[in-house]
Amino acid sequence: MTNILSKSQIKNFLNTAKGDTLGGIIAAIIALPQALAFGVATGLGASAGIWSAIILSLIVCLLGCKFPLISGPTGPTAIVLASAVALYSGNPSLIISILILVGIFQLVLSFTKSSELVKFVPYPVISGFMNGVGTILIILQIAPILGHKMYSSPTETIQNLLGMFSNVSAEPIALGLLTLAIIFYSPKWLNRIIPVQLLALVAVTWISTVLQIPTERIGEISIHLPKITIPAITFTEFIKISPTALVIAIICSVETLLTTLVLDSLLKEKHNTKKVLMAHGIGNMVCGFFGLLTGAGATMRSAAAINNGATTRFASLIHAIVLLAVIFYFAPYAQEIPLAVLAGILIKIGYDIIDTKFIKVIKYAPKDDLIVALSVFLLTVFHDLIFAIGVGIVLAALLYAKRIADQTNVEVKEVYGKEIMSLETKLIKDFKYKIRVVHIDGQFFFGSATQIVSKFEELLGTKYLILNYESSAKLDISAIFALEDIVVRLKSQHIKLFIVIKNEEIKTQLENHGIAEQIGLHHIFFNEVDAIETAKKYLKRKIRKISK
After folding, report:
1. Cβ distance 441 to 470 under 8 Å?
2. pLDDT of residue 113
3. Do 496 and 363 fall into the same domain?
4. Do residues 246 and 84 touch, judged by C-beta distance below 8 A?
5. Distance from C-alpha of 512 to C-alpha of 209, rounded to nearest angstrom
6. Where are the alpha helices (DSSP H) in 379-527?
7. What string of DSSP letters covers 297-347?
8. Which residues pair with 217 in a beta bridge?
9. What is the mean pLDDT of residues 503-522?
10. How far apart are CA 153 and CA 136, in angstroms?
11. pLDDT in tens, 15-74
């Protein structure tokens, strides 16, 4: 028995190691072009981008994040950091100080309950910010695609459009368009073999080198870590840069927490968000002393690692080792990458960041949601990203959402019919068939939807769930998308969902957004008794079928 157990343990270990190794390699392949591109986009350099991906992922792995969370520079963190770098470009000491403070503030946030607030962010706020970040990334690449030096802001880029178009270079345009063509039009099966961003990076760089195309390239990538810098700043300067550093820390934290939520769903586990934030705070602080990019948990890279078999933090270690090998063995080749190629990659990243899900249903969205999303979008793109996030999104949206959510009562109760009581009692020990009703007393929005999702552990064994929305108020877009998530989650648990609503307006909303189709029109009721009776019929049929 001991030998069998030992063999089983060895087999499980080898399977885990195999999955983590493959997942880490895939994540590194995806991270490589992105880290280089984000480093260039922030103005800190390609070396800063790739070293940041290595150090942050390694520290997060070593400090106890036991799941395969791949960390490094990301789109939102790179854009907000680029704004700060541009703002203090004449004073490197202040930039280093901001980078270090980001880690310190994030570390402080890990000791608070801030990790619980992310679930109260209204969807229009997230959507407006993501659309703004994606748009900024795309606009900033216009200059390098046309053969000019990248400007520090979208406003500056737009102001110089006429001048750029009057003096364009054919070579970078051709390289940029070829990069985009490979990324957007490569067959899906090819992307399963090799990420198309890496394929475009290697192929177009090789073509530009072989043909000796004259174009601006990345230049030297250092195989050595930058020297540690301990900046000396005055108290006045500290007060001046603290708001900027705090907002960047919040953006890094929010993105990391959202990534953790996604990974919790993929792995069917719940992880310690405070520990995750603490690890990223220390990691970003270390990166700051070296003058490297701040970063966060990267959703796409982490999900790719898990989808390729990764289950533990060993995948993060492999990810860091692979990128380290790239620096030591392939730096001379990476130096030849044209900036126009990186611009093409960043355009695709910007496109992926844009929330097309919200845009597709924008004509059905409530006016209030549109105003919020549009306001955040315009402030992010054309005014000041840090101001938009710090003032408009984080404080106002989170606190307001939480205040409303606290006024929403969610009650779960069991419903049994006498006619099936004896049959269900007989089977409940083995099959746990139950009908449950979830009452939402108050406005159903993103915060209250999250409360329902958090109760799913209580619903284990439930086969029929009746969601009774007792308000006659229309659903906001946050609730619509949260409800979609609930439907998907319940389907994955093989739970049938019935919805009780008060009026035709809400039913029309559910139809417009495709939720009625996912649930089934025959599962939408205006009366709770009808929903319960229908659930009883379903349950009775199932019990009889099993009894036979």
Report:
1. yes
2. 74
3. no
4. no
5. 52
6. 385-387, 398-406, 418-431, 446-454, 477-492, 504-512, 515-519
7. E-HHHHHHHHHTT--STHHHHHHHHHHHHHHHHHHHHHTT-BHHHHHHHHH
8. 338
9. 83
10. 8
11. 778 888 888 887 887 788 888 888 888 888 888 888 999 999 999 888 877 888 889 888
Judged by DSSP in three states, 478 sits in helix
Domain range for 130 is: 2-87+124-217+295-403
For residue 211, give the amino acid letter: L
Contact predicate 79/225, CB 8 Å: no
Question: What torsion do the CA atoms of 81, 82, 83, 86 make, to the nearest 10 degrees?
Answer: 130
In terms of domains, do 360 and 415 share one? no
Is 516 part of a structural domain of the chain?
A: yes
Considering all CA atoms of the chain, what is the largest pairwise distance in Å, rounded to the nearest integer? 83
- Give me the DSSP letters along 368-408: HHHHHHHHHHHIIIII-HHHIIIIIIIIIIHHHHHHHHHT-
Q: In this structure, are 24 and 151 located in the same domain?
A: yes
Q: What's this model's pTM, rounded to 2 decimal places?
A: 0.65
d(CA 516, CA 508): 9
Distances (CA, A) of 415 to 167, 520, 545: 73, 22, 21
> Would you give the distance in Å from CA 126 to the centre of its chain?
10
147 vs 125: CA distance, rounded Å: 35
Closest CA to 385 of 43, 41, 83: 83
**Residues near 444 by Cβ (< 8 Å), separated by ≥ 6?**
408, 469, 471, 475, 479, 483
Tell me if 278 is assigned to some domain: no
Q: Cβ(83)–Cβ(153) under 8 Å?
A: yes
Instruction: Tell me the percentage of the chain whose pLDDT exceeds 90.
Output: 8
Domain boundary among 386, 403, 420: 403
Among 257, 260, 228, 233, residue whose Cα is nearest residue 245:
233
Domain boundary among 403, 424, 458: 403
Highest mean pLDDT among 72-76, 102-106, 335-339, 444-448: 102-106
3-state secondary structure of 439: strand
Q: Give CA–CA dist 208/196, Å, rounded.
A: 18
Q: How many residues does the chain have?
A: 548
* Alpha-carbon gap, residue 475 to 469, rounded angstroms: 10
Q: Which of 247, 241, 250 is nearest to 110 (CA)?
A: 250
Indicate if the alpha-carbon torsion angle 301, 303, 306, 310 is positive or negative: positive
CA gap 114, 249 in Å, rounded: 12
Angle between helices 170-185 and 339-353 (to 10 degrees): 40
Do 414 and 536 belong to one domain? yes
Answer yes or no: is 272 within a domain.
Answer: no
Q: In whole angstroms, what is the distance from residue 257 CA to residue 67 CA?
A: 14
